[in-house]
Amino acid sequence: MGKNRILPIALAAVVLFSLLECFFTVHQIAQVVVTRFGEPVRVIQAPGLYFKLPIVEKIVYFDKRLMSIELPTMEITLGDKRRIMVDAFGRYVIKDPLKFYQTVYSERGVLVRLNPVVLGSLSSVLGGVSLSSLLSDTRISAMNKIRDEVNRAAKRFGIDVVDVRIRKTDFPVQNSAAICNRMISEREREARELRAKGVEMSKTIKSNADKESDIEIAKANTKMQQLIAIGEKEANIIYVAAFSQDANFFEFFQSLEAYRALFTAEHSETTFVLSSKNPFFSVMNVNR
Fold it and tell me: Which stretches within 75-172 are classed as H helix?
């Protein structure tokens, strides 16, 4: 009785296992190639539950999402004969899983088949541009050209190359010191030229300023002399008009002005020996 029970259970387990082996699911981010004895028989790209023959048919899954390919760093000679180290990467999508399975089989196979194509295109396109162009906006057109060339070659693998980009560029180690020294020398030369131009401009500006200052001072002095002359002329007219009315007062005032000019601090230590009857002191002579 024990053996009779075990046999049906074993058969049920085999049947259940076979049924489970007959069905498989395809996720929305995946696509499938169904093979029979190693040969592809159909391709499934829509998500859902599917049937396959157990044991004889196998399922190979491929990703629908954007995939990356990392490229080894390579040394490239640019159009201006400068050598640089280029670190690049690419992005691709599997569009034809059957062709992909037949040509490269797996994502690791992509590296083997696609790397030489990308590196060859990088070398070819960048070999026609200069370093200054590579560092400017024209780099975009060069990278688009590389992408298009690689994409045409990648069609036979069942993939579409979406993008090829340069992650980093650098000079070879042996050239770095020489390039740095040359750049330092160039910057020092430019600095010397700028300093020399600055000194020259400073002298020119100072010379022009001094010239303009001298001109303005001369104009001011001329104007001052003119105003003094006008003022003295008007003062003399006023004096003449005022003192002509009283000649004695005019003589008295003129004498006082002469005394003030003579007996100021400038002549305080000077000794004058004059007769008291000298006309110069006539104003002080009470017996006049």
Answer: 97-103, 107-126, 131-134, 139-154
Asked whether 60 and 32 are in contact (CB, 8 A), the reply is yes
Residue 26, C-beta contacts closer than 8 angstroms, at least 6 positions apart: 32, 44, 45, 46, 47, 48, 50
Ordered by start, the domain boundaries in the chain are 2-63, 67-170, 189-245, 249-284
Query: What does each of the 288 residues of the chain score in pLDDT, given as a tens digit?
Result: 445 666 666 666 665 666 667 888 999 999 999 999 889 999 999 999 898 888 888 999 999 999 888 888 888 888 888 888 888 889 999 999 999 999 888 878 888 888 888 888 888 888 888 888 877 777 888 888 999 999 998 899 999 999 998 888 887 766 666 667 778 888 888 899 999 999 989 988 998 998 899 899 999 999 999 999 898 888 888 877 776 776 677 777 777 777 777 666 565 566 666 666 666 666 665 554
Q: Which SS3 state, helix, strand or coil, does residue 269 take?
A: coil
Q: Tell which phi-psi region holds residue 37, choosing left (phi > 0), alpha (psi between -120 and 50) or beta.
A: left
Q: Hey, what CATH topology would domain 67-170 get?
A: Tetrahydropterin Synthase; Chain A (3.30.479)
Q: Whole-angstrom Cα distance, residue 262 to residue 250? A: 18
